[in-house]
Every structure is written in C-alpha cells, then in structure tokens.
Design goal:
heterodimer; A: 810 residues; alpha/beta; 5-stranded parallel β-sheet; B: 112 residues; mainly beta; Rieske Iron-sulfur Protein; 4-stranded antiparallel β-sheet; 3-stranded antiparallel β-sheet; binds siroheme; binds flavin-adenine dinucleotide; binds iron/sulfur cluster; binds FE2/S2 (inorganic) cluster
C-alpha cells in the first residue's frame, strides 16, 4: 500500500511542490488534493492581464483536469478543509467527509487584508485575489461608472490599470505620499505616478479611509480629513495575510505564518507547509519565485531524499502594467553604509538607481529601461565584486565590451516574427506560444520545448525577458541545480568532490544521491571534469562520460567523418611537418585541408577507422594531438616578435612555444586559448584570449578573461611582469585557479564577470604564496595530462573498440 | 519522421554480431551493413539495444552519443533517443529504426 499524501490548497505553491515530487518519484504516494476554488491550478499572477482584457481564464490555467487524471491525483475542486485531526491523521472537509493522510502538505496561500472599517462588508467592496474577484470586477465595470482602489502598491495599481482598461473611471487612494513604497524610492514613484496619470488614472495621495457608506451597495467612501468620494465599487488591495486559520485551529504552531524549518516541516513532523502561508526564519513571502524554491525543497523531503534545504530568498519585482517598465530588487533605498549610483533622464522618462555596499550590488530600482534588471539581479544573487565594473555598471551588461547580440533588444518591443535564436531559427512568436500553451516557467523549459537558447546561448537574456513579459517575473533565483538528475548546484558538487575525496563519477553520484542511475549527457562530462581536475593522480578518466570528440580525440563533422588537427607549437612549423601533413593527406585521400583561425592546419573528412593510422604517421613526424576538440588548452597564437619584426620588443614566438609546451594536454572547464604578441600592436590578438601576453619594453603585460566568440569580450589587464619565468608562473597559476573554481562549460570571460577581477588579483597577484602553490598544482597535474592521446591509440591500441565496427555485414 | 526501416522488410533473421564484452559499458559499437550502419548499445545494467545509427533529427550517428539509463544523447544537437523504442524523448519527435536484440551466453544476436 502506498502512503497517502494530502495537499490542502490547490494553488501555485502546492501544485508546484507536487510537480517537483512527481519528477523525483512519481510512484511514492497516493495523492489527494483539496482546493477551495472551483478550478484547477491556475497562474494567479496573470489575473492582472486577465482583468486588463489581455488574456482569458483559459490562457492562465496551468493544470487542467486531465493533468490530475494523468498523474493519478484525486482532485476535490471547490472543497474547503475545515479541520485537521492530527491525532488520527485525518482532514475534514466542509461537506463532512474525512480523508486519511500519512503526510500532509499545507499550501493555503494568503487572504487579502480587509481594512476593519464600517461598511467593509457592503456589496461592491471586494478584494483582488482570485478568479471570482476578477469576474466581479469585469461585471461591475460593465454596469457602473466609478471605481476606487484602496492601496497604491503592486496589486492595487495592477487592479486599477485593469479596471481602467475595462472602461470604468478609477481613482487610486493611497495612505502615503508615494506609490509602491515597498518597491520604489520616491523618484521612481513620482515617474510612475506621472505616467499612470497620463494614461487616465486618478490619484488621492496621503488619504486615510475612515468608512464606507451605502445601503446595500457601496455609495461612497469617507476619509479621516472629512472629504468624501462617490463610487460604485471599492477594491481593497492593502496587503495580504498568511492564511493560517486552519493550521492554528489544529494546534500547529503559527506566528505570522505557519512556522516551518529549513526543510519546510511544521512543528508536527508529519505536516509540511509551503507558499504564502508559511513563516520561515521570521520571513513571509508574497511572490512566486521563492515559493518555487520552497516547492523544490519540500518535494525533496517528501520523496525521502532528505538533503534539500531552504535558506530564504532574495526577491525582485516587476509591475505588470503593459507599457510601463519597472524593476526593483533588494534594498533600494540604502542607508548611511551604502553608496548610490543614480541616473535620471526626465525627457526620456528613464530612472536608474543602484545601491552598493562593500563593493557588492545591494539593491536596484529601474524605471523606463529595465533591460538590465535580470543582470543586476544576478549580480546581487551571486554577490559579485563589482569594483572593477563600477564605472560601467549603470550602462548595463552590453557595455562590458560586448559587440555581439547579448539580448539587449527589449523583448517587449519585438514583433512576433522577429528571430530570437539565430542558431535554431526560433522567433519570438514561437517562444510566446510555447510558454502560454505549454505552461513553461523557466529558461530551461523554453530551451527544451523550442530549442531557443539551447545552442550557443547568446540569446538567453532575450529569452529571459520574453519569459518575464509573458508570464511575469518567474525564474526561481538562487543557484540552479546542475541538471535534472540532481538538486545540487555545480559548486556544491565540486566542494563535495574535494572534501570527501571522491575520485570517480559513480562515487559522486552515489554520495550526492543522484536521481538517475547514471546521470545524463549534461552532468556526466561535468562530473568527470571535476573529478579529474580535483584528483589528477588518484582519479581515472571516465571516457564514457566524455563527448565523442574527446573520446576519439578528433572533431566529429556533420557527415559523421572527423577532422584532425595536429599541434603546431606557437604556430611555428617546419618543412618536414608540412611534408608529413601533405603525405598523410595523399595517403588517406583526405578531401580538404584548411588553415584554422588558431594558426595550424586542419584535415577534414577523415573516416573514423582511419584515425589511428593517420595519427601514427603524424606521430612519426613528431606531431601530437592539437586538442582542437577538447575542453582543454587549444592553441597558443603568436606573432613574429622581436626575432624578425622591426617593431618587436620581445620574442613572442618563443614565449608562445614555451607556454604551449607547458600547458598542452591540460583539461579545463571550457576551451582555453592563449596568445602572445611581441609589442603593443598586438598582432596575435592577445586581448581577446583567455590568457593574453603582450610584450612591452620593460617586460610583459598579462591580460585575462578575453573571448572572441559568440560574445566578444576584451581582456582585463592583470598585471605587468618582467621575466619569461614570471609569465609562465602567472600563466599557469591563472589557468589553475580557473580550472579549480569555474563551473563546467563556463569560459574565463563569464567566470571573471561572476567572481570579479579583484578576486582573481587577490588570489594570484597580491598573494605570492598562493600563486606559487597554484603554479605547483598546475605542474603536478600536468604530469598526468601530458600524454599524447594519439600516440596511445595509434601504437598502443588504446580504445581499439572506438575505431572498428563490431561486425561487418554484407 | 524517419522513413521505413529498410532492414525490416520481409522475414527478420537473427544474426550473431559479437559478445557483450566487445562493447564498453555505457557505450556503443557499430555493425556495418550495405543498407547503412546499426548502432548496438550496452547500458550500465548490461541491457543490449540496437538502433539504426541515424538520428531522426538530422542523421547524426547515435553510436557516438553518451549513453545514460536506457537512453542515448545524439552527439550532434543533443536530442535524447529512447534505446528501447528508438523514439526521440519528448518534446522532440521522431524515431530511429529499432531492432530486436537477444543475448545468449554472452553472445549478442540482433533480428535483421
Ligand atoms: C577549425 C576552426 C575554424 C577554422 O577553420 O578556423 C574552428 C572550428 C570550430 N569551432 Fe571555433 N574554430 C576555430 C577557431 C575559433 C576561434 C578563433 C581563435 O581561436 O583564435 C574562435 C573565437 C575565439 C574564442 O574562442 O574566444 C572560435 C570560437 C568558437 C566558439 C565560441 C566560443 C565562445 O566562447 O563564445 C564555439 C562554440 C563553443 O565552443 O561552444 C566554437 C566551436 C567550434 C566547433 C568545435 C563547432 C563544433 O562544435 O563542431 C568547430 C569545429 C570544427 C571542426 O570540426 O574542426 N568556436 N573558434 C578553428 C580552430 C582553431 C584551432 O586551430 O584549434
Ligand atoms: C493579482 C495578483 C497578481 C500577482 N502578481 C504577481 C507577480 O507579478 N509576481 C509574483 O511573483 N507574484 C505575484 N502575485 C502573488 C502570487 O500569485 C502568489 O505569491 C502565489 O499565488 C501564492 O501561492 P500559494 O500557493 O501560496 O497561494 P495561492 O496561489 O493563493 O493558493 C492557495 C490556494 O489554497 C486554497 N485554500 C485556502 N485554504 C483552503 C482550505 N482550507 N481548503 C482548501 N483549499 C484552501 C485557496 O483557495 C487557494 O486556491 C500576484 C498575486 C495576485 C493576486
Ligand atoms: S567553424 Fe565555427 S563559425 Fe564556422 S560554422 Fe562551425 S562553429 Fe560556426
Ligand atoms: S542529428 Fe541528432 S540531434 Fe541533430
């Protein structure tokens, strides 16, 4: 017999928790859901666009009846639980029936707060919380002329805007002098009020309501200052209170909300709670993103995995009034310990304020131009040291040397047929359609269903924006799990590998309770990298966890043949090497030869079975694998330098060769490129490489974190050094720091943007001991890495099975 | 959608193609035939599967993909293909032809 899980509250948090549970273990429980509302689970945050006539109820249903049937969930719509008999573990419904539970999940959301004043129960006085309220408002707007919304917060303004769209005249009454004081500072609030007034809303600021008058139906509302306003409808949107009555009456410990611990368990160990009804570490939440995080954790415990922890959330807000761009997050007012960067352009209606504390972004308010909201929010969550980008911060992510298309076109202004993802040819319309018809919430979901942002990823920012403008601000923040096989983020996995000395992919999966028996194509290569880079001497490289290119040491081509790139140290070659390449090309009928952008030669169209023989011939001419296929050191590009060039001040060619001799064979989180130029004319383009070296009169300038690919990023200057030995030490130490700390598939450019250049300098420029230690660890790991993979396979028969069919028929 | 699978015309025939040990765990080998390659996979639990070595997306060689559970991820654009049926995992759609397999005394037979 399966255990019985009962959910009280068929809303956003509760059902999300069930969905997360089904993902982990669909068969563990017999699930029963009680919901007081007569609908399936719907997207409550989209009630605002429904009210504004931009969406219909059907558009916002998240789980229709069929979903409950498909997942074997018993749903009781329109039924309210009136008591919990904890002793016998039963919940009692308002129709008198009683249902047994083994585990109970309370997700009763919150109740709108109705100001306790005379007349608040008159007909025509309503709240804004559910479909029923929206129906009432739409109906009233057809019959009457005047409406008052009490409350100038997020909810009140969305209600007011929606009602106005329904054609009724609306006045917003607010207790304070500024709107949305919990999300906006006074400057932004003023701009907001001005543009809402321009659209036709009326405001009465600094007004305290005293009573509501009328016979049966509301007639007017009276204020403390003696004034009165006639109206046919009053919407109270002054706040919400966690809906704890049921829990409290059942003897479960409640304060402002149902009190839960980090596992979302209440004081009764059989009973969990999620959503707006809870109180966690003294906080209650009224936005969706934190609820989704809670849902993940509670599902983890319900599934008896037992390690998820909820540690609170940072939240951000957006006003869903079409045509008004507003974003706010964190502590946006600041105090004496913070510094503010402010930009105000009254003529274009743009206002930005960033609050900085201890070189970290602490809060942000954006009005009129919110394109960078997601980026600021990320900087806040990652607690990135922003001292190096401070002067650009206000201008947004696109000013950090991005010459690509990093998502700075405002998604809202794009037409449906404009292409968002240039790799997979996905238009905005396709994405919006997938989001609305399939109920998608996260960038990952969108990737899966539309393939947008699934290839090079440069349009991820744009997809985030489309998601936000279509479903509201949804993406659950905080460190995302590595993949669907686990709840652990990259950094935690890596830490466990180091702390517990886990030396194989299987041991990591076992120790960290992987959900799938052998992972997936996304986590296995990452785990393998983490294991071999953490324990170079003690781990065994798991070739089945590597992508085909790294497994067979060549690049797979679209027709299934391979390309072969021998290493050409520093881009320097000899007649003998060139002859060997020419001979190989003739001998094996290689159809195409090309000089690469990395200063070496690529042979295309080699059949898999031919690879070992091709390598053998190249090996005999003294060449080794160029790792053109690997998350590894690729090339060291050089220029002519002082040996021949009339401007050269340093021997860049030799320096490049030395660097490549030291670093070849090393595996890195993503590919890694180095270049060395002989003078500041920089013909080797060193300033768009992961590590760039530029010769100057007095020595060498070292640059880090450049990228020439999808999103161009110019390097940051790390420091200047004098000797070749120092170039090598710094070069290896930087590479080692990156190898040890960046997440898999994160190149140096995004890594540096995440951790900050100051952090890197602190670790390896200012701290000479640590630099020396990093250098040593790099050299140590190279002992196990500098083995030519081609030689092993060409003459020693390693991985023979990769290159020969198991059987030939016919 | 994948066109008909050429091999399954007429009566299928059981052919021995090698032993389980010839294929690495979580790996694949290829059987070449005049009608195109067949990919033979070995899962972690030693279950053996055979699919046409052609991804329903753009024909990528599935034998070169990463095997996990009873699925393989195509090396070209990361579609996931179910090894038991050859069907692409939703939301992707399509099917790589699938062959019956049988293992006796460590020898692999496939029905062609
Ligand atoms: C062969 C080559 C093009 C050429 O004919 O010149 C090439 C070919 C490929 N590049 Fe590249 N890139 C080549 C130089 C570059 C350069 C130029 C350079 O290194 O100076 C860049 C920009 C510099 C940079 O990386 O910052 C470059 C940026 C990319 C990117 C974007 C990386 C990024 O971080 O934005 C990708 C996609 C990726 O890695 O995810 C990519 C991916 C690829 C892949 C591996 C695509 C793939 O997954 O199949 C191509 C493999 C073709 C093959 O089978 O050989 N290639 N690629 C060049 C090989 C250089 C070498 O000798 O090893
Ligand atoms: C108009 C509006 C706009 C919003 N906009 C945003 C936004 O833009 N961004 C954002 O992040 N958040 C927004 N929110 C907030 C967001 O909708 C809530 O945070 C979220 O819905 C809370 O989820 P929940 O599951 O805790 O509660 P709910 O979704 O309210 O679900 C609780 C459910 O439990 C039912 N219930 C209660 N008691 C019982 C009982 N005893 N028996 C049976 N059933 C019971 C209720 O009827 C309700 O259906 C908005 C909210 C509203 C109303
Ligand atoms: S070589 Fe690079 S730029 Fe050219 S098609 Fe391939 S991935 Fe694109
Ligand atoms: S060819 Fe297989 S995923 Fe594209």
């Amino acid at each position: 017999m399966k255990e019985k899980l009962v959910l009280i509250g068929n809303g956003m948090a509760g059902i999300r928790a069930i969905e997360e549970l089904l993902k982990i273990n669909p068969d563990l429980y017999d699930i029963t859901v009680f919901g007081a509302e007569p609908y399936g689970n719907y997207n409550r945050i989209l009630l605002s666009p429904v009210l504004a006539g931009e969406k219909t109820i059907e558009d916002i249903i998240l789980n229709d009846d069929q979903w409950y049937v498909d997942n074997d969930i018993t749903l009781h719509k329109g039924k309210t639980i009136v008591s919990i008999d904890r002793k016998n573990r039963n919940v009692v419904c308002d129709d008198g029936t009683s249902t047994h539970y083994d585990r109970l999940l309370i997700a009763t959301g919150s109740n709108p707060f109705m100001i306790p004043i005379p007349g608040n129960d008159l007909e025509g006085v309503i709240s804004f919380r559910d479909i029923h309220d929206v129906d009432l408002m739409i109906d009233a707007a057809k019959k009457f002329k005047h409406a008052v919304v009490i409350g100038g917060g997020l909810l009140g303004l969305e209600a007011a805007n929606g009602l106005m769209q329904q054609g009724i005249s609306v006045t917003v009454v607010h207790l304070l002098d500024t709107l949305m004081e919990r999300q906006l500072d006074t400057d932004a609030a003023e701009l907001l009020r001005a543009s809402l007034e321009e659209r036709g809303l009326h405001f009465l600021m600094g007004k305290q309501t005293e009573s509501i008058t009328g016979e049966d139906r509301v007639k007017s509302i009276r204020f403390k200052d003696g004034t009165e306003l006639y109206t046919d409808l009053v919407v109270m949107a002054v706040g919400i209170r966690p809906n704890i009555e049921l829990a409290k009456n059942s003897g479960i410990h409640c304060e402002q909300g149902v009190v839960v611990n980090d596992t979302l368990q209440t004081f009764d160990p059989r009973i969990y709670a999620v959503g707006e009804c809870i109180q966690h570490r003294g906080m209650t939440y009224g936005l969706v993103a934190p609820l989704f995080e809670m849902a993940k954790v509670v599902a983890n415990h319900l599934a008896k995995m037992g390690y998820g922890r909820y540690e609170g959330s940072v939240t951000s807000t957006k006003l869903k009034v079409t045509g008004i761009d507003l974003f706010s997050a964190g502590d946006f007012n600041g105090d004496e310990t913070t510094e503010n960067i402010v930009m105000k352009d009254a003529s274009t209606g743009v206002y930005k304020k960033l609050v900085i504390k201890d070189n970290r972004l602490h809060g942000a308010v954006l009005y009129g131009d919110t394109v960078d909201g997601a980026w600021y929010f990320r900087l806040m969550r990652e607690e990135t040291d922003i001292s190096d980008i401070r002067s650009h911060l206000l201008f947004g992510e696109s000013h950090l040397g991005d010459a690509g298309h990093g998502g700075q076109n405002a998604a809202a202004t794009m037409s449906d047929d404009m292409q968002v993802c240039d790799c997979n040819g996905v238009c905005k319309g396709d994405i919006v359609k997938a989001i609305t018809t399939k109920g998608l919430f996260t960038v990952d979901d969108v990737k899966l269903h539309t393939k947008a942002a699934a290839s090079c990823g440069s349009c991820t920012g744009l997809v985030e924006q489309i998601l936000a403008s279509t479903v509201g601000d949804y993406e659950a923040p905080e460190h995302a799990p590595m993949c669907k096989c686990t709840d652990h983020p990259h950094d935690d996995v890596r830490k466990a590998i180091r702390d517990q000395k886990l030396t194989s992919v299987e041991s990591v999966m076992k120790f960290m309770d992987w959900r799938t028996p052998d992972g997936c194509a996304s986590c296995r290569p990452a785990l393998n990298y983490y294991v071999i880079s953490s324990w170079p001497a003690d781990s065994k490289d798991d070739y089945q966890s590597r992508f085909i290119n790294e497994r067979v040491h060549a690049n797979i081509q679209k027709d299934g043949t391979y390309s072969v790139v021998p290493r050409m140290f520093g881009g320097v070659t000899t007649p003998d090497e060139l002859r060997a390449i020419a001979d190989v090309a003739d001998k094996y009928n290689i159809p195409d030869i090309k000089v690469t952008g990395g200063q070496r030669i690529d042979m295309f169209g080699v059949k898999k079975e031919q690879l070992p023989a091709v390598w053998k011939d190249l090996n005999e001419a003294g060449m080794v694998s160029g790792h053109a296929y690997g998350k590894a050191l690729r090339t060291v590009k050089t220029c002519v330098g002082s040996k021949w060039c009339r401007f050269g001040v340093q021997d860049s060619t030799q320096m490049g060769i030395d660097m490549e001799k030291m670093t070849w064979g090393s595996w890195t989180p993503h590919k890694y490129k180095i270049a060395v130029s002989g003078c500041p004319r920089n013909c080797a383009e060193a300033t768009i490489k992961d590590f760039g070296v530029v010769g100057v009169e007095s020595g060498w300038e070292l640059h880090v974190g450049g990228n020439g690919g999808i999103k161009v990023r110019v390097t940051d200057l790390l420091c200047r050094v004098e000797t070749e030995e120092e170039v090598k030490e710094y070069g290896a130490a930087f590479m080692q720091l990156y190898r040890e700390e960046a997440r898999y598939l994160e190149r140096t450019a995004p890594w540096i943007e995440r951790v900050g250049l100051s952090y890197v300098k602190e670790k390896m420029v200012e701290d000479a001991d640590n630099r020396a230690a990093l250098y040593q660890r790099f050299l140590e790991s190279q002992k196990y890495a500098q083995i030519d993979p081609w030689a092993e396979r060409a003459s020693e028969g390693v991985d023979q099975h990769e290159f020969t069919p198991i059987k030939k028929l016919g | 959608m994948q066109a008909e699978v050429k091999f399954s015309k007429g009566e299928a025939q059981w052919l021995e193609i090698g032993s389980v040990e010839d294929i690495p765990k979580l790996g694949a080998r290829v059987v070449t035939t005049p009608d195109g390659d067949i990919a033979v996979f070995r899962a972690a639990d030693d279950a053996i599967f055979a699919l046409r070595d052609k991804c329903p997306h753009k024909g990528g060689p599935l034998s070169q993909g990463i095997v996990h559970g009873h699925k393989v991820t195509c090396p070209m654009h990361n579609w996931n293909i179910d090894l038991e049926t050859g069907e692409a995992v939703a939301p992707d759609e399509g099917c790589a032809g699938h062959f019956k397999t049988n293992v006796e005394n460590g020898k692999i037979f496939i029905a062609i």
